[in-house]
Inverse folding.
């Protein structure tokens, strides 16, 4: 019988985290709500700064609620104008951090938003248990606010 070294165990946890996050990103880009619901844990530590003028930003806690955020955002934005790029993908154990840039256009106002983002995810047993998104919320709010 051979024992795994701590570094081998750490590497396998990081590999599992990376695989789960990749699955999440694939499902997110495809708009596959059913798959995202499977990937999110039953209860999720969700953080996205509340913004009352942005209809797709609200508190969420269940996997099903979290999975529908992408579909809600798609209803309120122009799909062909939506962009997200990931420039950095860091993994440490069960935690992953993605950094990049996002942009889009709000359907109701015709206004655009853009800016950098950071997304902290935690993956445990193949499911996302934490989803904390930090983005340019002022730009998103301004795009959702009708001209006066």
């Amino acid at each position: 019988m051979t024992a795994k070294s701590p570094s081998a165990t750490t590497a396998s946890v990081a590999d599992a985290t990376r695989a789960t996050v990749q699955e999440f990103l694939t499902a997110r880009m495809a708009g596959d709500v059913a798959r995202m619901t499977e990937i999110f844990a039953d209860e999720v530590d969700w953080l996205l700064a509340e913004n009352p003028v942005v209809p797709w930003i609200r508190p969420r806690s269940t996997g099903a609620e979290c999975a529908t955020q992408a579909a809600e955002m798609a209803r309120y934005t122009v799909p062909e104008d939506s962009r997200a790029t990931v420039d950095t993908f860091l993994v440490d154990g069960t935690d992953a951090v993605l950094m990049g840039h996002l942009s889009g256009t709000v359907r109701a106002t015709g206004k655009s938003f853009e800016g950098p983002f950071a997304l902290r995810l935690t993956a445990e047993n193949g499911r996302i248990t934490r989803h904390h998104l930090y983005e340019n919320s002022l730009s998103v709010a301004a795009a959702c606010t009708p001209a006066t």
Observations:
- Residues 6-30 form the longest helix (25 residues).
- Strands lie at 40-48, 83-92, 95-105, 112-124, 127-135.
